[in-house]
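Lab meeting minutes (informal)
Scribe: AK
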Amino acid sequence: MNQDLTKLLQTWPYQAGQVMARRFKGRDGNQKIQLRVDLGILQMNAEGRPDGKRPMGHESWFDFYRSRLAEHLIEKRSPESFTLGIEECSKLQQECIQFHHRYICFFQLEDFDLVERDCERNLAVFEFVAEHAATEDLAWSLLQFVPQLLLMQTRAHGMASLRDGDFEAAVSQIQEGVSELERFYTENERLDLMEASPELGSLREWLGQVKNRRPLTEVERLERDLAEAIRLEDYEKAALVRDQIRKQQASDS
């Protein structure tokens, strides 16, 4: 079997600065995701753990450690003495990175429901580690990725709404994403990181762009006409527009 990937790579050239992903059915009949990177191609399963492995016979390391917790609770009747050490946190972190690569691909493919699925999965892992890690430093080794996750999750929600033409929902979702990021930094006492957060900066910039693209409501359009009439000192037109605004507001209430 020829193991040289040159021809495959030549048919799918790498483009710097772009996320390049594709989905197809593998020889095993399952959906696969491929991500083009500078040195080659990453391939992942679309379902389950991206690399297809089953650690200790479980769907993932996360599922394995949750089963260990369940056994601990049966035996000890308390979660207090259940801890995740360096090895456990390292395995969970590496696993989360796999899911991170995959939801980046799903975002590029505009499959926002699957972005949400994988984001929620990783968020559950972060919460699990935050509760059970042996030390705060170990917990932060995974929690540090929460801002990236919240950014991607918010973008998926917002893009899905924009695709449906629902600008109001998109604005609300982006604002909620900003609030969630601010809460995360505040609750973890990382205000220094909040001030320089590229994720917050990105969402705030996007929020401004979406607001500028949002079509005006009928009242907003009339208010714009009113301002223009007053600027031109056309007070007769201004009075007519004011009446129209009152009627529109009454019908909207």
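Next up, CB showed the second protein from the same session:
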Amino acid sequence: MNGVSRWAAYGAFLLLLVGSGRGSAQAPMPASAPLTDAGGPLPEVSPFDGPLANMQAGPASHGGEKEPPPLTLSNFFSAGWGQEFTRRSSEDRAPDLALLRVQTNFMEREVRINYAYTNDFHNAKQSNLNNFDYFIAYAFDRRFMVEVFGNEQWIDGRGKNPDEGGPTARFVGRVQLISTADSSYTFNFQTIAPDPSLGQHQTTLSYGLAGFEDLTRLGLHRVGLYYSVLFDSLDGPHAVGATQDDVQYDITIAKTLTRPDTPLIGNLTLFLETFAQTNLDGEHKDSTLVTLTPGIRFNLGKLGWPNFGLDNWLMGGADIPLSGPKPWNAIYRFTYIKNF
């Protein structure tokens, strides 16, 4: 195992250990715990081991039901399986959100549409790329969910080179490892089909860990810290010297500025993602591309219809390459999400 892959493996192991530590302590909160919408007290929980159903505002966030118990590694086989999917309110906390680059770390039920425009490839044959994908994510319970993607890509040829385009598909699975008031960790895996119309003939198999920590308890009000590591392996015919294995890793900081029900800008969140991808083999072994992605996400708040605005989210950002080889100038991303 080379130095880069060894570092990535250690990082994944440490990520899991950190999540395990966050989910271990249990101590009662003060008796002055906040009330639910129904007027009853919330369950007494530790600030390090309280209940977390994914912190996105959604229908279950406003039903007044008691929050579910925490999920940890110690109760992995006995809790969460077959339990009703739910989300908790993000009032006065950092909402745990699906963002642009970092891997998502919680269960969700949503329809999502993504558009990305890659500006000016640094090669002689291609100029720009339009990428459009759409998927449905469905959590069967508090421990397991799947996503099914469809994707379309259109590449503008440079000079006399022809334009190209074609469809592909992706399947994603996610297992909740830890879900508490302050922490959330999942194991993610996915398969991406090749797109022969674009000259892609390899299937991508990926697996990794994703995590979230609410830093409100440290005095950083409604600030969230995200991180993930994902290993990719390509299978199928390829050119000699082409990369077959890589690792993607991301650290993201996010600050939420508004209340969940603020009209038009509910849970307005600014975030900055630091994303890197390192080749583990091939002619460009150990080369790393690092990008920064500043972004914004918000829901439409209360607009007069029950939960309509709270369940509809908009998000956007731009990938800016920092280190070489820089394959393009920038990628501009726009996303719509509908929770259900």
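CB comment: The CA atoms of residues 146 and 173 lie 4 Å apart.
No objections, moving on.
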